[in-house]
Amino acid sequence: MTKQYDVVILGGGVAGGSLAHSLRRQHKTVAVVEDNLFGGTCPNRGCDPKKILLSGLEITQVVNDMQGNGISGSVSVNWPDLMRHKRQYTNPISDATNNGLISDGVDTYHEHAQFNSDGLLTAGNQSLSGDQYVIATGQRPRILDIPGSQFFKTSTDFLNLDDLPNDVTFVGGGYIGFELAGIARAAGATVHLIHHNDRPLKQFDQQLVHE
User: Fold this and answer.
1) Which residues contact residue 206 at a Cβ distance below 8 angstroms, ignoring those fewer than 6 apart?
2) Domain holding 87: CATH number?
3) Please, are residues 14 and 39 in contact by the beta-carbon 8 Å criterion?
4) Domain of 60?
5) For residues 205 and 209, what is the distance between their CA atoms, to the nearest angstrom?
6) Looking at the structure, do residues 134 and 68 belong to the same domain, yes or no?
7) How many domains does the chain have?
8) What are the pLDDT digits (tens) for 38-65?
9) Does 173 fall in a domain?
10) pLDDT per residue as tens digits for the range 16-25
11) Same structural domain for residues 97 and 168?
12) Are 164 and 41 in contact (CB under 8 A)?
């Protein structure tokens, strides 16, 4: 049996979720289909977990900068403990986001979706029809198709490493690469960074980059 909605949203991230809540305030019938984590990239595998890991970098920097100025002794990052701390924040997010949508009257489907030749959308075994469809699937990191790619990890993988390798190479000279490289270095890894531009962080003020 096909379920009919005013709007069917593909993607349960920040954009899709915010739209769903807004549409419910207009008394629209709404379905949200998500095949990964509700809440999307930022809270689950992007900005927020990265900031938690960065806190380790920031604390070690402050302690090192204050040596001889009222602070003595050293600190180090315990990667498994830091990762456990991060997961205490990130693990509940998907279920909490999903429950928030449901409590607002949104039908959610934790399934992979595809459009069929008859114009209907299939989410798992359920057929859905919408007066309007919104694609809010976001983006995901892509592994480069080059020799050795089987050894590559994405930023998502890095933010969920159980153990940090002793030696890490980052491909990309943008701010994400630098942030993750800083985290790895603060945690004690030897870090290399490869970029293809004539200088890293090309979009930033170069005086600040050099400093």
Assistant:
1) 199
2) 3.50.50.60
3) yes
4) 1-141
5) 6
6) yes
7) 2
8) 999 999 999 999 999 998 888 888 998 9
9) yes
10) 999 999 999 9
11) no
12) no
